[in-house]
Write a structure and sequence with these properties.
Number of strands: 18
Shape: globular
Structural class: alpha/beta
Number of helices: 13
């Protein structure tokens, strides 16, 4: 069976790519190994800037809207910050992903569930995708099968990724979500190297999780229990505990090769600073669709336009976010102390979550500060003592300073 585009993975990136391709008149097929609705390990926070990317409201699948945050440092020293506008909508991924997928089907995309891709063959004429039961042909293949996806590798495109790991569970209090958590979420900083802990309120329960560098994996279940108790819940009440990987793109990792594109977590587009990936999933899916339509129509010779557009937009953002992450996790206690006593960072954080500000614009508007951030970030990347202090075991290479020093890629 022949399609213009076959998309492997029906999560936010894949369903967005399919919906936009179908809206542009392309024959799009989604293949997913699961049957929807299916759950997805994720905190389920959809930021305001993410919701603004979509041409429809996500209100039908929103369980709660939060505008405030409770910060803590190493499960102590708490303080609150409030926002005049909503920061994020809290949803369950089982609902959110099924909702986005339905929008793709309504736009005209096709779906094959319980379809595990076994083999991919591609050449200049197109791609052939084989599942256990069927074979599909298309002009373009989109790998949208998440952090543990294998589609890109089967197509001969191997992404280079750093991986973090997180574990989470739900607590459903007998009386519902406590009043203090109805409009706020919690962030605990400093307990885990390179990451954080959280509590996200949903309609009738709270989602609690911890995440950080992959080498912390053996400690995460204990950390989750401690954090749950810190937030006033019982660790024994946690249900649905599961872990998942978060993928962060390494410099030079491919986004497009020949007639194959990578989007979302499969491309490693998680924001290093926030560990949030839904924004990048939806943005990359929509961007991919535009370039696929041009390619299928014969308006361009290849899909390199997708790579160039992503490099000038999202990848530039993720690069700066990585630098912020390097700097922040070197001395997270200092930043929490500064915020508690001066509220210096809260205004910036709000504007980024709303989509009114970008990481890149921060660096451009404050060039001296930006240069300082670049210097310290590069210093962390080449200094073993600072790497240990910030928990880095596989640092990114320096980009402005110390360029002659050998650093693992």
């Amino acid at each position: 069976m022949k399609y213009d585009v076959v998309i492997v993975g029906g999560g936010p990136a894949g369903s967005t790519a399919a919906r936009e391709c179908a809206a542009l008149g392309l024959k799009a097929l989604i293949l997913d190994r699961a049957e929807f609705p299916r759950d997805k390990p994720c905190g389920g926070g959809v930021t305001a800037r993410t919701a603004n990317l979509l041409p429809f409201s996500i209100e039908p699948v929103v369980g709660r809207v939060v505008s405030d945050v409770l910060f803590s440092y190493k499960q102590a020293d708490t303080f609150e910050r409030r926002s005049e506008r909503a920061l994020a909508s809290m949803t369950r991924r089982i609902d959110f992903d099924a909702f986005l997928l339905q929008k793709a089907l309504e736009a005209g995309a096709s779906l094959r569930e319980k379809s595990i891709v076994r083999e991919v063959t591609r050449d200049s004429r197109g791609v052939e995708v084989r599942t256990e039961d069927e074979t599909f042909h298309a002009n373009v293949l989109v790998a949208a099968d998440g952090a543990n996806g294998t589609t890109a590798a089967m197509a001969g495109v191997t992404p280079k990724l750093w991986k973090q790991i997180a574990i989470e569970g739900d607590v459903t209090p007998p009386g519902g979500v406590p009043p203090e958590w109805k409009t706020r979420f919690g962030l605990d900083i400093g307990s885990l190297s390179g990451g954080y802990g959280w509590v996200f309120p949903k309609s009738d329960h709270v989602n609690i999780g911890v995440g950080g560098w992959r080498h912390l994996g053996p400690t995460l279940r204990t950390q989750l229990a401690h954090l749950t108790e810190f937030y006033g819940f019982k660790a024994s009440d946690l249900t649905g505990i599961h872990g998942h990987h978060l993928t962060i793109r390494q410099p030079g990792s491919p986004l497009a090769e020949g007639n194959t594109l990578l989007v979302g977590d499969a491309a490693g587009l998680v924001d290093p600073m926030t560990a949030e990936g839904i924004y990048a999933a939806i943005l990359s899916g929509g961007t991919a669709a535009k370039h696929i339509a041009q390619y299928v129509a014969g308006e361009v010779q290849d899909l390199s336009g997708y790579r160039r557009e992503m490099a000038s937009t999202l990848l530039a953002e993720l690069n700066v976010s990585r630098r912020f992450h390097d700097l922040f996790h070197l001395t997270p206690g200092f930043y929490l102390w500064a915020e508690r006593h001066s509220s210096v960072f809260w205004s910036l954080a709000q504007r980024i979550l709303w989509g009114d500000q970008t990481y890149v614009n921060v660096m451009l508007r404050h060039r001296v500060t930006g240069t300082t951030i670049d210097f310290i970030s590069d210093l962390v990347r080449v200094t073993p003592f600072l790497q240990r202090k910030s928990g880095l075991r596989d640092p990114a290479p320096p980009q402005r300073f110390f360029m002659r020093q050998a650093v693992r890629p």
